[in-house]
Amino acid sequence: MFQISIAPYDLLCLPNGLPPLYEKYAKRAQLSEEIGLDDPHGPLAFLAVRRGAGWPFLTLALRYHATGLSVLPGALLIPETATLFVGAGLRIFAYDLNAPARLWDEELSSALWSWARHGDYVLMRAEGELAVWDLQGRKQWARMVEPPWDYWVEDGVLHLDEMGEEYTFALSTGPRGEE
After folding, report:
1. Separation of alpha carbons 138 and 140, rounded Å
2. What is the C-alpha separation between 120 and 172, in angstroms, rounded?
3. What is the pLDDT of residues 116-174, one digit of tens each?
4. From the centroid of its chain, how far is CA 95?
């Protein structure tokens, strides 16, 4: 297991399995979620969140379906809004760490690749989808994409290269406000 510190939080992560103290972590957590554990197929990821050196207040054990080496669990923490975005395989989630509570969960049509923050927005990359949320976890927009694709952001403008074709639109409005 490894620890990532983003003040005031520590994330305890294990991308393939449960830690030896899993039962104690889950029992002491205010919110403990087990998703897909009854399915014997696919890797099992573990994530816990704590403040300081105490026991985690949130634990997540998630079995997911890996479709290749590029499919790994991912998380993005927004400390100023206490919002955690997390996912693996075809499942993504957002959590309010103040409560703690799950804000939402979604099933994707293609595997999660990564999360990224660009100013006041969180971008989710999946094999066939690009989606944007605000820092509180409210979805702003989503767009299906055809691989191969990539994007970059400059001055609030998202540049999308989809199969060699470039599209640009405001990060805040997405495809509705295509330029």
Report:
1. 6
2. 9
3. 999 999 999 999 999 999 999 999 999 999 999 999 999 999 999 999 999 999 999 99
4. 10
Residue 76 pairs in a beta bridge with 85
Q: How many CB atoms within 10 Å of residue 92?
A: 21
In this prediction, residue 179 carries a pLDDT of 44
Beta bridge partners of 161: 150, 166
**Rounded Cα–Cα distance for residues 10 and 6 (Å):** 6
Q: What is the rounded distance in angstroms from the CA atom of residue 139 to the CA atom of residue 133?
A: 4
Res 68: pLDDT: 62
pTM: 0.94
Q: 88 to each of 2, 91, 107, 121, 176, how far by Cα in Å?
A: 17, 6, 10, 20, 28
Sequence-ordered list of residues with C-beta below 8 angstroms from that of 53, at least 6 positions apart, any chain: none
Give the pLDDT of residue 72: 83
Distant-in-sequence, close-in-space partners of 17: CB < 8 Å, separation ≥ 6? 44, 46
Residue 164 structure tokens: 């060699």
Q: Distance of alpha carbon 36 from its chain centroid, rounded?
A: 17
H-run or E-run covering 152: strand 149-154
Regarding beta strands 31-35 and 58-63, do their DSSP bridges make them parallel or antiparallel, or are they unpaired? parallel
